[in-house]
Design brief:
Number of domains of chain B: 3
Largest sheet of chain B: 5 strands, antiparallel
Number of strands of chain B: 14
Strand order of the largest sheet of chain B: 4-5-10-6-7
Structural class of chain A: alpha+beta
Strand content of chain A: 15-25%
Largest sheet of chain A: 4 strands, mixed
Strand content of chain B: 25-35%
CATH superfamily of the largest domain in chain A: Aldehyde oxidase/xanthine dehydrogenase, molybdopterin binding domain
Number of strands of chain A: 13
Shape of chain A: elongated
Oligomer: heterodimer
CATH class of the largest domain in chain A: Alpha Beta
Chain lengths: ~350, ~290
């Protein structure tokens, strides 16, 4: 028999390390005489789009084309420490340090532009390849010419940005307090089909609404949301670490199964933009927020289909058949109900 | 180094002479390499010389010969699953070919390789057991024709002498009114090794099953036939109750083990699932 069910899962997530743990990033940028800018940041590009994102932020902040930015990341010989790529912190922390590096570079640039345009450097804005007096738009110089001028006059052409979101700790006695610099929210909705004969759970469709603060690159955010759902699906249904005597028994991709394209349903990514005043242009991380709700969503859908709760991960067919009473339960499953709750 | 020398044979006599012309060296034939190369990488096997037989014309292609279907050992799964002769006469093989790995593997891997690798979880072999196929092997001097049930002697053990090659597979075209089916149970939808699978041929005559073969994969050291399930089916009209009884009988013949993909109890249960699905599909196709 094939039973269908619908489930919702939601989460709140503290971005970065929190709890007074060091959480900072440094970015350096340098202006070339031709107006191009090179960015140095110690974070790793894992395929998530960090390099694209930092270039976009710098291009936007300096008002220059994306094509005029170059980036070097994760080179211990050349790049400043940006902290790890983890805790969904890259956009939020490394992005902020890149913006600060731009603002640092803009100071000497605005000084020279002020001299050349005979205007107040504080009134200058960097936009569309121009450095322009915001009150008197006719007073302007192209970013490229200004870059050349900076080099000719021997001005400072390097900027550095340091950003820290290191928070205070929570109360040691009560664990109360604001542990993180900011928080993200996400909800997902899924429909599943449980085959009670084979024990197989198929996710038929899934929608994922993730709070991005501001999507700096919407296509990349969609990719993160879709990838997060696939990873969450693997966690819910497939990824099963078999450890005996401390040894991994399935440390191969042929035995440690993750979803293939054939196992992934249509994922509908929904970007929610709630401007975060502490983020770069209002943005915050989406990586883990897009992954965390998937398993509870799927498990709620299974419960909706069966009228019975799954209290273990992953819900592999063999374990599902035990839950359904088709196979005898050999080993005792520790379920959430069995775990002692701390006294309030 | 996985091997020292790679030679490409253009004809069958050349392949046979290359296989026996390296004194003292470990010489292995390779076609798609989808099993062999992995095993060389993981040091399960070793080789000094690989002889590529994938281009040998005598080992390739699918043809009808005196009421028999002949499939060359170096024929790929993609070729098998697209062959009109297979689709019309041995649908079970086309169905199994599409379940092996994924398209990339199906484009490279060969039927002869699957037989030579002799994995108990091989997806193409249950169909050959159900079709009662023979394996034709050729050596420097003579050819031998062996029923596939005897060719597979034990866990990854085959009846092939040094210097011999698997040349082709032969089986009689199933009689009029025969339906065939393959059902694979795996832990994801593609790129997965069978936990259990079943291949079935049934011949219907006047609404009654006249002839039936049931083969099971990944439940014993080799692919096995299930005589119990076959005898339940023969002489009966297809019905859900019959499929259940055949499934139950097949479970009696299975001797599964615990491994990384599932426990013996899980496999035993799945034998029933796979058998009833395969028998039902085969009966529908026979009718």
């Amino acid at each position: 028999m094939k039973l269908r069910g619908i489930g919702v899962g939601s989460m709140m997530y503290g971005l970065g390390y929190g709890f007074a743990r060091p959480d900072f990033s440094t970015t350096d940028i340098e202006l070339a005489p031709d107006g191009t800018v090179t960015i140095w940041n110690g974070a790793s590009e894992l395929g998530q789009g960090l390099q694209t994102l930092l270039c976009q932020l710098v291009a936007e902040e300096l008002g220059i084309p994306y094509e005029d930015t170059f980036i070097i990341t994760a080179d211990t010989g050349r790049t400043p420490d940006a902290g790890p790529v983890s805790a969904s912190r890259s956009t939020y922390v490394q992005g902020n340090s890149a913006l600060k590096a731009c603002r640092d570079l803009k100071k000497p640039m605005a000084e020279l532009a002020g001299e050349l345009l005979k205007t107040d450097p504080d009134q200058l804005i960097f936009k569309k390849g121009l450095v322009q007096d915001q009150n008197e738009p006719s007073r302007s110089i192209s970013f490229t010419n200004l870059a050349g001028g900076m080099h000719q006059r021997g001005r400072r052409v390097r900027g550095s940005g340091y950003h820290s979101i290191t928070t205070g700790d929570v109360d040691k006695e009560t664990s109360q307090g604001d542990a993180y610099a900011t928080y993200a929210w996400a909800s997902q909705l899924a429909e599943v089909e449980v085959d009670t004969e084979t024990g197989q759970v198929t996710v038929l469709r899934l929608a994922s609404a993730t709070d991005a603060g501001k999507a700096i690159n919407p296509k990349m955010v969609e990719g993160q949301i879709e990838g997060g759902a696939v990873q969450g699906l693997g966690f819910a249904l497939m990824e099963d670490m078999k450890i005996e005597q401390g040894e991994f028994k399935n440390a191969k991709l042929s035995t440690y199964l993750i979803p293939t394209a054939a196992d992934v349903p249509m994922v509908e990514p929904l970007i929610v933009e709630v401007y975060d005043p502490t983020g770069p242009y209002g943005a915050k991380g989406v990586a883990e927020p897009a992954t965390i709700p998937t398993a509870p969503t799927i498990f709620n859908a299974i419960a909706n289909a069966l009228g019975q709760r799954v209290r273990f991960t992953p819900a592999t067919p063999e374990k599902m058949l035990k839950l359904l009473g088709k196979l005898e339960e050999k080993e005792e499953q520790i379920t959430i109900e069995d775990m002692p709750y701390p006294e309030p | 180094m996985l091997y020292r020398k790679y030679e490409v044979a253009q004809t069958l006599p050349e392949a046979l002479s290359l296989l026996s012309s390296h004194n003292g060296a470990v010489v292995r034939p390779v076609a798609g390499g989808t099993d062999l190369i992995l095993q060389l990488h993981e040091r399960i096997l070793s080789a000094d010389v690989l002889v590529d037989i994938s281009r040998v014309p005598e080992l390739r292609g699918i043809r009808l010969e005196n009421g028999q279907l002949v499939i060359g050992a170096a024929t790929t799964y993609t070729e098998i699953s697209r062959s009109d002769l297979v689709l019309k006469n041995a649908f079970v093989l086309a169905e199994a070919s599409k379940k092996i790995g994924a398209v990339q593997i199906q484009n490279m891997a060969t039927l002869g390789g699957n037989i030579g690798n002799a994995s108990p979880a091989a997806d193409a072999i249950p169909g050959l057991y159900a079709l009662q196929a023979d394996v034709v092997v050729c050596g420097p001097n003579a050819e031998r024709r062996i029923p596939i049930t005897e060719f597979h002697q034990g866990y990854r053990k085959i009846d092939l002498n040094p210097g011999e090659l698997i040349k082709e597979i032969r089986f009689a075209i199933p009689a009029e009114g025969t339906g065939t089916a393959f059902y694979k149970y795996a832990l994801r939808k593609s790129q997965a090794i069978s936990v259990v699978d079943a291949a079935v041929c049934v011949q219907l005559s006047d609404g009654v099953i006249k002839h039936a073969t049931v083969a099971l994969g990944a439940v014993a050291p080799t692919i096995i036939r299930s005589p119990a399930a076959e005898s339940v089916l023969i002489g009966e009209p297809p019905s859900e109750d019959l499929f259940d009884r055949a499934a139950e009988a097949a479970c009696q013949d299975a001797r599964p083990i615990d491994d990384i993909r599932g426990s013996a109890a899980f496999r035993k249960y799945l034998v029933g699932v796979c058998t009833s699905h395969a028998v039902r599909s085969a009966c529908e196709r026979a009718a």
